[in-house]
Amino acid sequence: MAVNAKEVVVNFNSAVNPDSLFDDEDAGTLTAGIVSVDEIGADTELSGGVTGELSEDGETLTLTAANFFEGTYSLTVSDDITTTDGEAFEAYSTTFEITDETDPTVTGVTDGKSDFGSYK
């Protein structure tokens, strides 16, 4: 489910028709109400929103937060999403928790000409 503090992955068992998922696939703009991610206990929508990217095989949707996921969320997937054959997926909902416990590190230094290696 959670890949990191910015991404959540939704897996489907058949290829999704992107037209049933996106208002604008190139921009990753999901159709309102099709997939929602809401922080439990928050009075507002997820700050900055969420965009989506469908894998080449159409079976994996990666949701990316404009900011970061931190806390407990509900994920709801509408039954308005269809397969490439026009069959509707069943509605789905779950909750998940993300806590970012990874400290930031310097992963490398470069002067644009050479790589000075990785440091932690």
Q: What's the SSE blueprint?
A:
Elements: E1 7-11, E2 22-24, E3 29-30, E4 35-39, E5 50-54, E6 60-65, E7 71-77, E8 92-98
Antiparallel strand pairs: 1-6, 2-3, 4-7, 5-6, 7-8
Your description of this structure?
By secondary structure, the protein is mainly β. It has one domain (7-98): Immunoglobulin-like (Sandwich). It has strands at 7-11, 22-24, 29-30, 35-39, 50-54, 60-65, 71-77, 92-98. The strands form three sheets. The protein has a three-stranded antiparallel sheet, with no helix packed on it. A three-stranded antiparallel sheet has the order 4-7-8, with no helix packed on it. The chain has a two-stranded antiparallel ribbon with strand order 2-3. The protein is globular and about 50 Å long.
Q: So what's the CATH class?
A: Mainly Beta
Weakly predicted, low-confidence segments = none
Cα(first) to Cα(last) distance is: 28 Å
Write out the strand line-up for the largest beta sheet, numbering strands in chain order: 1-6-5
Radius of gyration, whole Å: 17 Å
CATH topology: Immunoglobulin-like
Q: Number of DSSP helices?
A: 0
For the biggest sheet, the summary is:
3 strands, antiparallel
Instruction: Quote the average pLDDT.
Output: 86
Number of strands: 8
Query: Order of helices and strands, N to C?
Result: EEEEEEEE
Identify the overall geometry: globular
Total discrete domains = 1
Q: β content, as a range?
A: 25-35%
CATH architecture: Sandwich
Overall structural class, as computed from helix and strand content, comes to mainly beta
Percent helix: under 10%
